[in-house]
Design goal:
5-stranded mixed sheet; 4-stranded parallel sheet; mainly beta; elongated
Amino acid sequence: ASLGENSLYLCDAMTQLNLPASLANVPLNALPATGALTAINVDPENPDYFSDSGVLYDANFNALVKYPMSKADESYTLHDSTSIIALFAFGNCNNLQELFFTGHAPQIDETAFTNTTLTAYYPAGDSTYTEDGMLDYGGTVTWKPYCPDQHVWNEGTVTREPTCTQPGYTDYTCTACDTTKTEEIPMLDHT
């Protein structure tokens, strides 16, 4: 079975979409483009598609097909095997503010983020993320590196020396993602 092209495109009031086990083809322009959609659920017996918390993927998580535009979550983490983000996949997302990439840079359709504003975090040090690939894709996307495992802190810079009346401070910067932290240096003993 297959959804017809544009079959649900204008279904603005639909909040849930339930796809049966027999559905083998979902044309990208068949899904709602705007509206109240909060989840796309797939029958567990479907061999071609999978739903991860209401987000539609192909069965192997290779392609993210559609993130529901009115899903309440402000943050989402892609599966590390995702290599394709489809046409309009994150289009018109009302609530999503942060998207975390965990694997190598996927192929992203030029309309994937249409009318969506978010920050996309990618693994620091992964050379597959290049300036040529960090685009807006139809929306407003701010790209920032993050350390998925553990920060690598520099030696730090003392910003205030401790005295016997006040503590000091050292600022550290992660050499991979530029995250900063400040640690207190204990006050000196009175002499």
